[in-house]
Design goal:
The protein folds into 2 domains: 4-66; 72-331, Jelly Rolls, CATH 2.60.120. Strands 1-20-17-22-15-13-14 form a 7-stranded mixed β-sheet. By secondary structure, it is α+β, with helices and mostly antiparallel strands. The chain is 18% helix and 42% strand. Strand 7 (145-149) and strand 8 (154-157) form a beta hairpin. The chain is built from 4 helices and 22 strands.
Amino acid sequence: MLPISSLYLLISLLPVYISFAFYFKVITLLPEAEDTLSSLLKLANSNLRRAQFLTRQASTTTSSAISDNMGVKIVPRPSQERGHADHGWLKTFHTFSFASYQDHKHSQFGALRVINEDRVAPKNGFGTHSHREFEIFSYVVAGQLEHKDSMGNTEILKRGDLQLTSAGTGISHSEKAHGDQQVHFLQIWSLPSVSRLQPKYFTRHFSDAEKRDVWARIVAPVDAEGVLKDSREGEGPAPVQSPLTLYATLLTDGKTLKQTIKGSKGFIHVVQTGGYNTNAATGATIKVIGAPGVEVVLKEGDGAYLYFDNSGDLTVENVGDKTAEVLLFDLE
């Protein structure tokens, strides 16, 4: 289909084509017919100029409406466009560039560097490997995750557990599926605001009841209110050395939540609880609303970049028939 501007050009040149046809005797008409045709061409030109004026006016009105909401923007990150791999023992998705998946358009967002949605087969996992200068946290969705590290920590994490390792100057750890069931978890990395920190380890637990139809704050900056920054275990969010706050919810069908995003950007992700799916997203469905006319519908595995001029209110509504497990990042 031709763009409307090209269509206007073709229509506007029609009188010229007909004039040439007359000039070169391609078309011959009786004098009275020529007068009628001339009148019709003048009328057509007049109507064309009027249509162009009305279109420009409508375009200006539309631009003004968009301009009113220019302070808020939502950019979808469809599930099937994420990097993904099936290694047999590991089925994984990468929201940002990771391992063999590299995409300069999706390499980092604020302090957020990695969101990997991993499914690890029973009695398999990531062997001992090292990290430096990252804040690494694991959000367990299903199954059990066995964690061991060079600081002497050994723990079996289950659904609702959140484990955070501040790698700092360097740690080594392993993560494996514990027991006879697959473990499904999200591994998230952020960049710390301070380098060469002393490595630390934290665990927190958030039950389904604590997340149902509310935004549970599960990770927050070390200096934020209510954060126990020196407690390996305890109540409240895990302390992170990054300008990042993470909320989680189990949003039931028909329910709506609002949250003020204090930073200039954010990211939202719908956990793929319905199973590993590399095609277009299905399952639990939410509508994300940033401002009037600025909204997007997301399903399991989908995410979206959120942009605000300064800060803003975000509304999330479950518009499907299944409970949606949703993670929301507030970023500077």
